[in-house]
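Hello,

Our lab assistant flagged a job as stuck in the queue for most of the afternoon. It eventually completed. Since we weren't sure the result was trustworthy after the delay, we are filing this so someone can double-check. Below is the sequence as submitted and the structure that was eventually returned. Let us know if re-running is recommended.
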Amino acid sequence: MRLTSSADPALWIPVTGSLGLRGRRHRKAAIRMLMAQANTSIGRDGVPGSRVGAWLASQAIPLAMRKADGRVLAWTWKAEPELVVAMATVQELTPQLRMARASMPMEYDDTESFPTPLGVGEKLMMPMPPNPASPPSANYTWDTGTHLITLNVVCSDRERFGTLESALDDLARSIRIADDLTSGESNVLRLPPA
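-- returned structure --
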């Protein structure tokens, strides 16, 4: 199963598929933000993400994403790449993954229904995570029966996180499953949910 998206190019810069110089600045900014958030979560406050580490990761990550072949999509906020990083993934729903989801901490039970063309999923906004060192985040999940589709969003600014909710909802609604069917290969008509 592969994912596609029609994310608004006025708001989002795709990191997936940007190789070499194309999208390099946004890739590096997103990686630097994620590295700084990781440093904060392990107690290294005030330590920025390494510029060399961000550059190395920005060169390796597009190759890894290309190898993932549509199972991973990633974006940064166009106006300010270090503000928001979003990543959509698709995983096969194994019994182990189902058990891990059932064992998540209590705060993950505060989800709300979120209808999209993928079906009715779950949306969890965490503007104030229980751990003060954790960044605000949002999680959107869809269970297709055989696969789990997840959109994870991390923001570097707690105060501005709430202003991004409608843009994040629109990004989540833009995600689709890419069928590898050519014309005449299937007699199944796919309609979005009512």
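-- support follow-up --
The delay was a queue issue, not a problem with the job. The result is valid. The longest helix spans residues 24-41. The CA atoms of residues 181 and 187 lie 10 Å apart.
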